[in-house]
Design a protein that fits this description.
By secondary structure, the chain is an alpha/beta fold. The chain contains 18 helices and 19 strands. The chain has helices spanning about 15-30, 75-80, 110-120, 125-145, 150-160, 160-165, 170-175, 180-190, 205-215, 225-240, 280-290, 295-305, 340-345, 385-390, 395-415, 430-440, 455-460, 485-510, and strands at about 10-15, 35, 50, 55, 90, 95-100, 100-105, 220, 240-245, 250-255, 260-265, 270-275, 290, 315-320, 330-335, 355-360, 375-380, 425-430, 470-475. The longest helix has 27 residues, at about 485-510. It is globular and about 65 Å long. The two termini are about 40 Å apart. Bound molecules: flavin-adenine dinucleotide (FAD). Flavin-adenine dinucleotide binds next to helix 1, helix 16 and helix 18.
């Protein structure tokens, strides 16, 4: 029996969240889809692994855009609609902020959150609520406009707040509210999930981040992030998608400016008029298109013009006591020696010591995360990719252990307990781990940086002009919606929509 069919409607390179979302949506519309994944399991970064008999979450802190069962946000709704049945758990708090002069646990819900800020900075309630309400209005506009694009005059009429703030950075808009510094610090904690300092971060992105996480809370799958990957893959196969693991796509075959298939490392040439790639455009346009002469110079200019965003360094500890016994009280802790996001961003350019960490104790959101009597605690920083490109092979181990030690010592001091005395398992993930595992460009986890020059609104406007090869689409953190697992799902859906729109247009043209 032949392993592959003679032709597929669409080939998806990469069976992680973005690629599987594309596959689900295309299969739902009746297309014949092949997913090629180089690992022996789906999910990419959304995965787990086993050490000492304990399954350990590899990455997920929290998912955005899920929402409660009766009030789903776009990612939760898409997964429900596709029949991907995930056992979501709501994270109990927003976060615990441990910043200079601040120790407080914040909770989701705009009014609750504003009240909690007010308890630290009396008198700030009204202003904070005003900021959050503005974020919510912009968030609603972004969601509507991403489905129903409209002319600029109509936009101004119906989405005034969105249009008026779209050209401003987060710093500029927050400055206009004249908030006391501590209130501003508390509103800044989530910045690490988008990874650009506020001088450069468009207010639109900040709005989406705050409205989603603070307004609706965050969620985690009961069986760790791999539950999402496994259930999406399982459902895609039920819907007729062919998923082949251990298949590394080396080349995307192009003729006369148009995709006609892919070649795997095993040498199979598989035909399709559409390819959706999880691999970064940087990699595709510099080494995967065959022949490379089919890559137009504008494609190289485009990738050179974009700044690859942050990568991750994470120490994951499995500890021999329950969280409470170790003084860990919160699911999520943002711990910083400053809350100046631009200073932290510059600090992430180096190899430490780092000034801002995000820590997660999964057991406090999911009692089943590790066996009774133990808990997991991860400490993560998000360095810029350039920092790690310069690390030499002979220095790698030393640098990795030095940074891990710094992070563990810092959090031990904060918690008042020597975490190293309680370690059952310890795993250190570096940007090199991420890069090796996913093949992502320089270990980037967040795609291209959101900046005032390159953000969702601008990307929507340049998207057509950036289709350099007919039939080639991209799905991953490197696409319009940007970083994170939720946006990866949205990016995957957008790639599928582009394919479906193109097929429809071609059919309409042929019928004329
Ligand atoms: C430590 C850490 C913590 C994180 N925490 C969060 C969080 O709390 N919330 C959140 O939303 N996000 C978080 N992220 C980021 C998030 O994991 C990523 O943005 C997201 O998972 C990216 O998904 P993706 O589908 O774009 O690609 P990836 O997960 O990068 O997967 C790409 C897939 O494509 C496959 N592939 C690539 N090239 C080829 C090829 N040539 N042939 C075949 N297969 C190929 C890879 O094997 C992989 O399976 C975190 C990341 C890390 C590292």
């Amino acid at each position: 029996m032949k392993f592959y069919k003679d032709h597929y409607d669409v080939i998806v390179i990469g069976g992680a969240l973005a690629g599987l979302s594309s596959a689900l949506m295309l299969a739902d519309k009746g297309l014949d889809v092949l997913v090629l994944e180089r690992h022996n399991l789906p999910g990419g970064i959304a995965t787990s692994f086993v050490r000492g008999g304990i399954e350990i979450e590899a990455s997920l802190h929290e998912m955005m855009s899920i929402g409660e069962k009766d009030n789903r946000l776009k990612v939760g709704k898409f997964l429900d609609d596709m029949g991907v049945d995930i056992d979501w758990l709501k994270v109990p708090e927003a976060y615990h902020a441990s910043l200079p002069g601040i120790e407080i646990t914040m909770h989701p819900g705009f009014e609750t959150y504003a009240r909690e800020v007010d308890s630290v900075v009396p008198g700030s309630y009204d202003k904070v609520l005003k900021v959050l309400n503005l974020c919510h209005t912009v968030f609603d506009s972004v969601n509507e406009l991403s489905i129903h694009p409209m002319s600029k005059p109509m936009m101004l009429l119906k989405h005034e707040a969105f249009v008026k703030t779209a050209g401003y950075s987060t710093k500029e808009v927050l400055d206009s509210f004249d908030l006391p510094q501590k209130a501003r610090d508390l509103l800044s904690c989530y910045w690490i999930y988008v990874g650009t300092g506020f001088e450069e971060l468009p207010f639109t992105i900040f709005s989406v981040l705050m409205a989603d996480y603070v307004g609706y809370g965050s969620f985690i799958p009961h069986k760790l992030s791999h539950e999402m990957s496994l259930k999406m893959a399982e459902r895609a196969e039920e819907m007729g998608v062919q998923i082949e693991y251990r298949q590394h796509v080396e080349k995307i075959l192009v003729r006369d400016g148009k995709v006609y298939g892919v070649r795997t490392a095993r040498g199979d040439e598989i035909m399709s008029d559409y390819v959706i790639s999880a691999a970064y455009p940087n990699k595709v346009y510099t080494s995967m298109i065959e022949p490379l002469s089919e890559v137009p110079p504008q494609a190289i200019k485009m990738v050179n013009g974009r700044r690859v965003s942050l990568t991750a360094f994470s120490v994951i500890l499995i500890l021999d006591k329950e969280a409470e016994e170790l003084g860990i009280k919160d699911y999520s802790i943002f711990h910083g020696t400053t809350m100046d996001t631009d200073e932290i961003y510059r600090n992430f350019k180096g190899l430490g010591p780092y000034k801002y960490t995000t820590c997660i104790c999964h057991n406090l959101g999911n009692p089943d995360a590790t066996p009774p009597g133990t808990c997991s605690f991860s400490i993560t920083v998000l360095p810029q990719v350039d920092a790690w490109k310069e690390v030499k092979a002979e220095d790698y181990d030393r640098i990795k252990h030095e940074i891990a030690k710094q992070l563990i010592d810092e959090m031990s001091e904060y918690l008042g307990v020597d975490l190293l005395d309680h370690v059952l398992e310890i795993v250190i993930e570096t940007p090199v781990t991420v890069s090796h595992y996913t093949g992502m460009w320089n270990g980037s986890i967040y795609g291209y940086a959101h900046t005032m020059e390159d953000h969702i609104v601008a990307r929507l406007q340049t998207a057509e002009a950036e289709k350099f090869i007919e039939g080639l689409e991209f799905a991953g953190a490197h696409q319009i919606s940007g970083d994170g697992m939720g946006p990866a799902v949205t990016n995957g859906r957008k790639a599928a929509k582009n394919v479906l729109d193109d097929i429809r247009k071609k059919k309409e043209a042929a019928a004329k």
